[in-house]
Q: What sequence folds into this?
């Protein structure tokens, strides 16, 4: 599958460049698809998630802002309070790839309904794709000949 | 990419939620900074000092938490530094005297002002100072 990265221009106004990805022949980006979702039962959670992204403009991205998801990451960072508020699920997951303090790739996600993301019909594909991209990207970035402009000019195959 | 819905949600977020996120991220940054400074970034060393398991400690260092005052005090003592600086007139018996941003004389001045209008103005000035300190933990000078 082809993966094309593009900058999320409206969010690239501070210390962090946010990227997203287009998969295969999709016309919409992964993060674009995520933001189209309505989360009527998780209003405060989505607000917190977007605030955390917005706050990174000033302070940079830190790995501890993210939740570890195997080879990828996810936002929001903590769900303990949210879990109390939404007893029927595990809250929203937005899968991401943390590259460094100034580069983050925002992908897709949804409401996680099972403890393991692999078992949740809402997020399992997003979790799988995020991890596949992360593995391919880290391998790509490790090659010094390919490293330059990796995110802006290159198409990755996963 | 169209971020219309993203902006809509960001703009409709209450000040309370915005402040909650900002303050939580400030604490998170500060805790991780102190962990790096005092324990080489190793949660296991802090866990040992506090007599807690590493898994208990790790949740404090990654995420938006509702810390109790009791937990914050334990962390401050274990990390031997203040985590959140609060504007106060009581500077007696502070464990972390060396990093207090205010001298007592400056605080007394604000209470000596007899004109009510001036008092309000001076208190507002101190509030601004406190906010500047909160946004930059390394800077303690008065504006």
A:
């Amino acid at each position: 599958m082809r993966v094309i990265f593009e900058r999320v221009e409206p969010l690239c106004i501070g210390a962090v460049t946010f990227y997203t990805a287009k998969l295969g022949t999709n016309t919409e980006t992964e993060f674009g698809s995520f933001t189209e979702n309505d989360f009527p039962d998780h209003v405060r959670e989505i607000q917190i998630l977007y605030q955390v992204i917005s706050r990174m403009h000033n302070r940079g991205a830190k790995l501890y802002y993210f939740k570890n998801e195997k080879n990828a990451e996810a936002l929001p960072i903590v769900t303990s309070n949210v879990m109390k508020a939404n007893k029927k699920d595990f809250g929203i997951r937005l899968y991401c790839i943390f590259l460094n303090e100034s580069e983050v790739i925002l992908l897709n996600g949804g409401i996680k309904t099972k403890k393991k993301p692999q078992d949740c019909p809402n997020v399992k594909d997003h979790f799988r794709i995020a991890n596949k991209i992360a593995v391919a990207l880290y391998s790509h970035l490790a090659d010094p000949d390919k490293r330059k402009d990796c995110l802006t000019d290159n198409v990755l195959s996963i | 990419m169209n971020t219309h819905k993203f902006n809509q949600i960001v703009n409709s977020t209450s000040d309370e939620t915005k402040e909650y996120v900002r303050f939580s991220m400030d604490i998170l940054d500060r805790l991780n900074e102190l962990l790096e400074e005092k324990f080489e970034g190793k949660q296991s060393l802090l866990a040992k000092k506090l007599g807690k398991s590493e898994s208990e400690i790790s949740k404090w260092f990654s995420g938006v938490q509702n810390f109790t005052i009791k937990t914050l005090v334990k962390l401050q003592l274990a990390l031997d530094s203040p985590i959140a600086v609060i504007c106060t007139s009581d500077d007696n018996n502070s464990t972390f005297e060396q990093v207090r941003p205010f001298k007592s004389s400056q605080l007394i001045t604000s209470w000596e002002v007899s004109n009510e209008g001036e008092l309000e103005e001076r208190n507002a000035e101190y509030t601004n100072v406190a906010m500047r300190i909160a946004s930059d933990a390394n800077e303690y000078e008065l504006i």
